[in-house]
Amino acid sequence: MSKTWYPVISYENCTECLACFNKCKNGVFTLKNSCPVVVNPEGCVQGCHGCGNLCPVGAIEYVGDDTGWVPPGKKNAESESSCCEAGKINCCEG
């Protein structure tokens, strides 16, 4: 478990689908008025992107994440550009 890695929810984007809450078995989230809230950040497993990978709108990012991971539903212009420059097929379609 980690003190330097944990999810942060963008409530501007969150649709309250509860995918994150249902995925995490480490007690990181609780529900407040049917909205997921991070209450136990130390319960998050270092490097885990499980809840973020399930979020359909990319509303979850991680404190301490320097992996270059981009939440689903979000585009990263830098990674897309370098991907295109490398000539990878289908990386720039979207």
TrEMBL record:
Gene3D superfamilies: 3.30.70.20. Residues 5-34, 35-65 form the 4Fe-4S ferredoxin-type domain. One of its GO terms (molecular function) is 4 iron, 4 sulfur cluster binding. It comes from the Bacteria. InterPro entries: 4Fe4S_Fe-S-bd (IPR017896), Fe-S_Ferredoxin (IPR050572). Keywords: 4Fe-4S, Iron, Iron-sulfur, Metal-binding. The keyword Chaperone does not apply. The keyword 4Fe-4S applies. SUPFAM superfamilies: 4Fe-4S ferredoxins. This is 4Fe-4S ferredoxin-type domain-containing protein.
